[in-house]
Amino acid sequence: MKLDYLKNNHSKNNKDIVSVGLLGISAFMGVLILIKVTGFFAAPARAENSVKKAVELSKPDPNEMQKYFAKSRAIADELKKNNLFAPPTPKKHPVNNVLGILGSEALINGKWYKTGDNVGDAKIVAIEPTQVRIEWDGNEKTFIPFDAKGASPSGSRKPGGPAGKAGKQGSPQIVQVQQEGRPEGMGRFGGDMERMRAMRERFENMSPEERERARAEMRERFGGRGSRGGRRSGGRGSRGGGRSGGDEEAGGDEDAGGSLAIRN
What we know:
Blueprint (H helix, E strand, L loop, with lengths): L1 H57 L3 H20 L16 E5 L2 E4 L2 E4 L3 E2 L2 E6 L4 E5 L2 E5 L29 E6 L7 H19 L3 H32 L2 H10 L6 E6 L1
Antiparallel strand pairs: 1-2, 2-3, 4-5, 5-6, 6-7, 8-9
């Protein structure tokens, strides 16, 4: 009896253990199935996030790109400047024109300069009665008032005779030296040079108030008639009439371009 009881009890215990084991396995399998199902639905969302992150990481940073291309860009700029197939850029003379001469000063680009002053990179070598010599880039050029291109140092261009009208004594008067006209003799040119030197000496002997008044008068005279004079002289010359050849060359048009001086 006792042996049968032990056998039955042992069999019952084994069945309980097997039942508990199967129940645990079933619960574990259910959890795995739940995880798999959840992962199946969550996978597209994770994939979408991964794609977005990959796209963001693949976009180049402008600042980083500038760092990489900075050196190459500098080399490219140097190659553009030193292009073997393009002529070098010509340098521009800093002196556009000499508007007038007033004693020991010259009116250049709307400002007054003296001998030794610098106009940009150019240096004024000398201010003469009828011309100004300027040195720039190792070359020296001679400028005649209203001559923007500059004459050669040998003096191939010569100013004409005086065309200004005689003013009243006492107050300074502006004298214009005609630049366009018929060639004149060396004797008359020499007389003009002497007259200009004398006018320059008179200007140097003026008081500061008289000099300032003379400068103001020159600016007013030049500002009102400078550009108009060139057109008038050109227009009359193209007509070919006797009046153009007689009146303008004999008396000198008061509006023609030329160097300016002061007469007391």
